[in-house]
């Protein structure tokens, strides 16, 4: 038996509006691994990510990290990042204010260094003082990614992060994200309904069917 | 898609509890009126022919005022929503000013201005003055979002401009027209200060009759019965309006941007000209008030202002006027804090408790239709007949004012809160923000400017509040509006002059507060 | 830094509030057990007046600081006192008349106090205070006539209540709303005392004769009356028997030798004004002193020319304008206080139905 390492989802059940959406879900992610989760919209992939992130509670089952049960741990203590399809940037903060949001415990100097580093990484150097309303869709999503990566999450959850972008941009960003995550050694679960994107980004591609029963 | 957020369950209960408190606080005076208004005497009141004459008169003047307000507001709403007129924002701001002015002061201004004070016509003119800006705002806010190409389709199908308006535009903006009609009707139906100062004493409205029964005839039960009757009409009006709204629900594609056309064509020019005329007319009563306050006999001077500023001497016959200014400020400050605090709690409660939130929402908005006099009467009855005798407690005055201002706070803050994507909070949580910080960084930050505006409006309302205050204020501590009405009850130029000077001071205070509130808008990109 | 701004504004508001709190009078004046002047608040109607020197002398000798709180018309002032019975806005009340007295006493507005000077009261007034309040002054509410107006038109002025409904006096009379005005109620009571159960018919006739109704005395006399100094257009008004001398006293120099107005001696209603200590007063002891003072020779002598009513104390010398120009009705109309208390509400309702319809 290999000792458990990283995140593991065990026998999870998620209800929506009184009906069972997903049941008997099992999932584990190896260190540094990017897992793509394929499936049509409305099938419960997003709910699964929300449960892992801790902004939604499952009906039953456990979520653990290195064997420690974190099912009841509040979201803000889990250190699991989440990126939605919409960038959801805080409208009242500029780019730097958004990226540094999760860096509260650092000194101002450390913080701005980290912000600069991340903006460099996502290909937006010098964007710190920009008003988020002036960003294009692709730029905004890059800022959202930088914001999620800034506090060095131990797992990043990407919920259709490129869904709103066009094909060209999607492919470019896909490659960027893959390189970025690998360079930082951050494991990720990437939800998409796009097979091409899944192959492009992920080390391992799964469907919901792989997670339930079959696994 | 709304998904449950169990991690916020605690926050939600924390929000529902204070929400319940707010509801109890609002429901209390209404319940007291209910308890006192139904009794052996109520049949007598309901059987009296005079009661029904008063109801009929109140309704008639309210309907007339509402109809006139609508008729005058629609062309202006068109110009403001559809046409690229110069000074558009200024005009919008100017015509909205009356709505925040104290009713008593407007009554006085028109009493000085109109050649026919003490008539129904005078009341109607003042009511129209109050409501035109409101109707314009409400209607234009929808109108400017209606895709102008609908009109173009109408025209291309051979409809005349009038027919296009009637058959295409009007149906599309009707929800806003109905909402504005209801608001204007409620305002006119429950109007108090204006009618007390400007109306014919022999023709009381329900609101005036409630006050006179309670304060001048000590018939509290009769007053409560009338208050219930008034409430009933309000409920019926709201019910009719929402039925109409439901029947009209058209889902239409609203445009995000606004496209305004240049002023071209007879109709557009006429509407634009009318808009400017109206914006100028709005200033006239205020100008007449200022001029009244400066007119001393046949000349001009600051005598009335220096009388206002005079400190009390040992044998002063009444509460010094300067003290009224201090009192008004004190009460308004407390009322603002209470209204904003309760309003925020209510908003969070409404937001957190989804389905039950509708009821919280309805109850909190109740004072909008319940009328200030009923709130005052209810609080008076509550402190008179309730378990704890609160009579004479100074806090009752700001509490009454806060209840009157509460719906405004909720109306200003709630839409901002509702427009906020709840997933923002999730994002903040996954970035390590505790639930409180997550709320502060998202909804809290987004509502901050709305709270500033809400506070300013609540403060303005409290400063000018008269209906509830008249019931609750101690004789030795009159607020400015109460003092103005007292001065107007005494004859002589000096009294009217001082009333006018005090009024100008109150208007200035109100405008400063509201402008300051508007200025609170944050610069984009600014952090906490 | 938006929060800072918002908090700043809130802070300013709070600061203003606190400032206002600290600088305005707190609800209760400090207790005057040992030293320093005691503040006594006197609740009265808008028509209250005494010479400044009389008040100043009293404050100097008694160590009491008198603060006057006015509560509108007599009726409204008393109603406020009834609504706040036990938790009053002041310590002592002056200006309640016989029409409202029973109601106020029943509501517990007063703590009984018989002034030490009450032995000096005119005998007919001694018992009226029911041992709770003290009579301070009295006056008669009568129809006032602008004699000059009638002389100019060569019309004889009316002399009785019956005259007022005659066609030659159509559109000439102003009365006050009995629901909102003390003389208005007095005049209604006069008609009830005179006509008994048929009073509604009398008012129907008055209404048919185009009587004008206003809310208060000031509006009626100073605003609508032809001889009231305003721009009035009616020569008959319900006012006091002492209004004619007031015309002379308030006239600009050179003062006329005789007033241009007179009173109709028929249909006058006698009003007595009382003072009493309010239940729950912060300064009951000093409040009693104020009641005694109101009955003192100094105040009683000042009353005629300050408020144009008659002193309740016997043996007070009246000013010349009173002896010369006031006719006290020999048989003023009156209704017992208890009857007024039970009947008033219904009468006013009925009056409303008849006159304000």
Write the layout of secondary structure elements.
The complex is a heterotrimer of chains A (215), B (528) and C (357).
Chain A: E1 7-16, E2 19-28, E3 34-38, H1 45-53, E4 60-65, E5 68-69, E6 80-83, H2 95-99, H3 108-121, H4 137-149, E7 155-159, H5 167-184, E8 188-192, H6 195-201, E9 204-207, H7 208-211
Parallel strand pairs in A: 3-8, 3-9, 6-7, 7-8
Antiparallel strand pairs in A: 1-2, 1-4, 4-5
Helix pairs in contact in A: 3-4
Chain B: H1 9-37, H2 40-47, H3 49-82, H4 88-100, H5 103-113, H6 120-143, H7 149-156, H8 161-189, H9 193-198, H10 206-216, H11 220-248, H12 266-294, E1 295-296, E2 299-300, H13 303-309, H14 321-352, H15 354-370, H16 372-385, H17 396-418, H18 423-430, H19 435-464, H20 467-472, H21 480-488, H22 493-519
Antiparallel strand pairs in B: 1-2
Helix pairs in contact in B: 1-11, 1-14, 1-15, 1-16, 2-11, 3-6, 3-8, 3-12, 4-6, 4-12, 5-6, 5-12, 6-8, 7-8, 8-11, 10-11, 11-16, 12-22, 13-22, 14-15, 14-17, 14-19, 15-17, 16-17, 17-19, 18-19, 19-22, 21-22
Chain C: H1 2-23, E1 38-44, H2 52-62, E2 64-70, H3 74-83, E3 92-97, H4 98-106, E4 110-111, H5 123-126, E5 134-146, H6 147-153, E6 173-176, H7 182-195, H8 199-208, E7 212-214, H9 217-224, E8 236-240, H10 243-250, E9 261-263, E10 269-278, H11 284-294, H12 297-307, E11 310-311, H13 320-325, H14 337-355
Parallel strand pairs in C: 1-2, 1-3, 6-7, 6-8
Antiparallel strand pairs in C: 3-10, 4-10, 5-8, 5-9, 5-10, 5-11
Helix pairs in contact in C: 4-14, 8-14
